[in-house]
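Folds vary. Our protein:
___
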Amino acid sequence: MNTRRYISRIIAVGWIVLGMLGLNLSLAQEGKTVRPEIGKPLQAAQELLKQKKGKDALAKVREAESIGEKTAHEVFLIDQVRGQAAALAGEAAVAARSFEAVANSPAVAEKDKRQFLAAAAGQYYSAKDYTKSADLAGRYFKEGGSDKALRMLQIQALYLAGNFAQAARELQAEIQADEQAGKAPSEERLQLLSSAYQKQQNNAGYASTLEKLVAYHPKPDYWLAVIHGMISRPGFPNRLSLDVSRLKLTTATMRNANEYVEAAQLCLQAGFPAEAKKFIDAGYAANLLGTGADADRHKRLKDLMAKNLAEDTKTLGQDDAQLASAKDGSALINAGFNYVLHGRAEKGLGMMESGLNKGGMKHPDDARLRLGYAYHLAGQPQKAIQVFKKVQDAEGTAALGRLWVIRLGQS
């Protein structure tokens, strides 16, 4: 995250406070007086602050601090000027304690209290006291503050303090507010939320946040992460490996030759050489196949695919008459999908719909995944999305369906 930008805005509050003071420390204020031996060094410190001489100003404040038997009002004024001098001098811990003391003082005006709380939160953050920073920021919001930069500083402080659960709750609230307002949540917020869930080993929350990342900020790295997270879940079935490869091919997240080879082999085993060609051609186009020590192996696979594809093209449709008598819809689904792969989408999609309606399959949601993918290949993304939204099986198909909906919604 660009945390420095947020911190800079909060630290700048200290200079807003300086402008607010407008004090003539040698004069009576609301019946209160400041002794000259305290007022003069404080006035000198203020002048030095205007010249951006923080260390010199802090030295003058310490002159005022050395005077004994200070009144509550004198302490209040010293804390204010010390906070600003220490902030400018880079002594964040001193500045934080000073601003917090001012915020806690009964003498502080209610309209100014939030500014001092914000300044204290920023300085505690700079001092790496993240728990105190988060606490002071929380008080700022309880007092009616609404600065969005401070909200992000509070969340970052919660995270760095190890309070991942609270950081996640605050982030969720911010993200939901963005979504309800029709705005895309920022990439930084979603990144931090995903990390907060990871730290808690909240796999469901982590997966959900990754889905939001690919939905709002569709980068290949996020697609890789969300797909990896999905297939790493306990119980994710091996039978969906080809379905995963189809999603990877569409999201440009195939990363090595073995992924292309394994996908092509699965296609050939399933009886879809036309689909195997898609993976092999993509692998060659990416310069991952046909090179290196395995180049000959890749060539043999390509030749086998070409041989199978020629035979499949020649025999396409020969068994159509027998499909109606099949005990379930699996044969219709497979035959229809093959027609789609061969460019005969209208016939193939009709057969697949008939097969799904016939039912009797052990894994009907697997068939819905294939039907949705077929509509995608046929250039009908809205129909594909409708089908993918119907995938319900929690075993792994539902997650694939959701990711397809996200991907096709970005087309």
Observations:
- Residues 13-28 have pLDDT under 50 and may be disordered.
